[in-house]
Design brief:
469 residues, alpha+beta, Thrombin, subunit H, six-stranded antiparallel β-barrel, 24% helix
Length: 469
């Protein structure tokens, strides 16, 4: 990205960045003829980079929100801890500690110093109020995000109609933790007093009016880990060799992840599976296994649905396997099960792995899990498979196809298959003809027809160990 400079169009925001660890801060005034199309193009470009784990992108509407009495009390306690640490550590609901807490404290300290310098009449109560609302908005903005990963990535934040002092100062605080921030001021701008501080640069798009930015609709590929940007992983040996599985993975931020587990054919079994005899099944019988595949609706903190995916029952005590990218943007999840009218809400993410793009969530219900293939025989090209998921929210759609190849994508071995999947199928089950899970549907290549990818059972088995019984 280019260093911070004035922009000539809204789309330029995707190509510039701040300097010295501080993000750029830009206000877009009014709305011109290309306003909506440029914002849509910006969303598409930055969503694409976000899906490749190359940056973190957020576009929100107004920052105005209500902080309850309980939340106010919580953030005042955060302030007490911040002062006790001599303003070197700052925790929130999302930031638990480490370098993130130190960086956030540094940003807040600079913000408080700015307020005392720029607003002579500001009181301690006003600073406390700004502090509470800043932390509340921070948690709303980054709720459901992998905070550690987010801090390591470039961050692009677009906010709308920011005119109040506290909202504007919060936007500036985001630049102090490394976010590039753009404010879409389509209706009016900040006060002359705030402008005189000189925190942000200005780009005039057009006249002020009622031309609101288009609603943000995240451009979602079938995977948040596209095939051409997979991190490097050493392929584990096959389970039948009874060797220790060790992954040495390099994530997007070059963090190594290492894991070792011995797997035998008897370790992974589903005792509650409805048919213990390993016999080939008809397509009708396989379709009935959809009762063990769930629809996951992803909700933000306001309860609005921001996406959907699928999940596989892997443990009787409420454990569900899905893709990590399915749960990334969620504050909580609403799970639907076939032949059950209830909706099970949960915010429990029990375990996740960014390298293999897997996560386990839990609901409060007894489940009938699917067995995972034990790998006694290698999968073969041309082998028949069935995919079950909820593409485009169409609950538990069933499709059939074949394995068309085993692809090493940046050294990660994945199953390429022809059974059609679409957006919302991520986290669904790829089954062999015995009704065993051989893969977790993860990716689809939009440019190709029926070119779909799944994380294989070699990764699934060690990941779910401890949850299947």
């Amino acid at each position: 990205m280019q260093p911070n400079k004035n922009i000539a169009s809204i789309l330029d925001f995707s190509d510039i960045s701040g300097t010295g660890g501080t993000g750029c801060f830009i206000r877009v005034l009014g709305a011109g003829e290309k306003y909506n199309s440029e914002i849509a193009a910006l969303d598409k470009r930055l969503d694409g980079l976000s899906a490749e784990n190359r940056l973190c992108y957020k576009r929100l509407g107004t920052l105005r929100g209500v902080c309850s009495a309980a939340e106010t009390e919580f953030y005042l306690k955060c302030r007490d801890g911040y002062i006790k640490s001599e303003k070197t550590i700052l925790h929130t609901k999302e930031v638990k500690g480490g370098a993130c807490a130190a960086l956030l404290a540094k940003a807040m300290r600079k913000l408080e110093e700015l307020c005392l310098k720029s607003f002579p009449n500001i009181t301690e109560t006003m600073i406390k109020n700004m502090f509470v609302m800043a932390l509340y908005k921070f948690d709303v903005l980054f709720g459901g995000t992998d905070i550690e990963a987010m801090y390591r990535l470039p961050k692009k934040i677009v906010l709308t109609d920011v005119t109040g002092r506290n909202d504007y100062l919060f936007s500036y605080m985001l630049t102090l933790i490394g976010c590039d921030v753009m404010l879409l001021q389509y209706r009016s701008d900040i006060s002359v007093t705030l402008d005189s501080i000189g925190l942000s640069t200005v780009f005039v798009s057009g006249r002020f009016g009622n031309t609101e930015p288009p609603p943000y609709k995240k451009t979602v590929r079938k995977t948040a880990v596209p095939p051409n940007s997979m991190p490097v992983v050493t392929i584990p040996p096959r389970p039948e060799k009874n060797q220790s599985l060790k992954h040495t993975a390099q994530s997007t931020a070059q963090n190594s992840v290492r894991r070792g587990t011995n797997i035998t054919s008897g370790d992974i079994r589903a005792k509650t599976f409805r048919d213990s005899r390993r016999t080939e099944k008809t397509y009708e019988q396989l379709a009935n296994l959809a009762a063990s595949v769930v629809l996951i609706m992803v909700n933000d903190r306001r309860g609005e649905t921001v996406g959907s995916g699928s999940g596989i029952m892997i443990g009787p005590d409420g454990f569900i396997l899905t893709n990590k990218h399915v749960v990334d943007a969620g504050a909580f999840f609403s799970v639907r099960i076939e032949n059950d009218e209830a909706v099970y809400n949960t915010d429990e993410i029990i375990k996740y792995n960014t390298v293999t793009d897997m996560a386990i969530i839990r609901i409060q219900r007894k489940l009938v899990p699917l067995p995972v293939y034990n790998g006694k025989q290698k999968l073969a090209r041309g082998q028949k498979v069935v995919a079950i998921g909820s593409p485009l929210g169409l609950f538990n759609s069933v499709s059939d196809g074949i394995i068309s190849g085993m692809r090493s994508i940046r050294d990660i071995e994945m199953i390429q298959f022809t059974a059609p999947i679409s957006h919302g199928s991520s986290g669904g089950a790829l089954l062999n003809m015995y009704g065993e899970v051989i893969g977790l549907s993860t990716a689809g290549i939009d440019e190709g027809q029926n070119i779909n990818l799944a994380v294989g059972y070699e990764y699934i088995n060690p990941f779910i160990m401890g949850f299947v019984n």
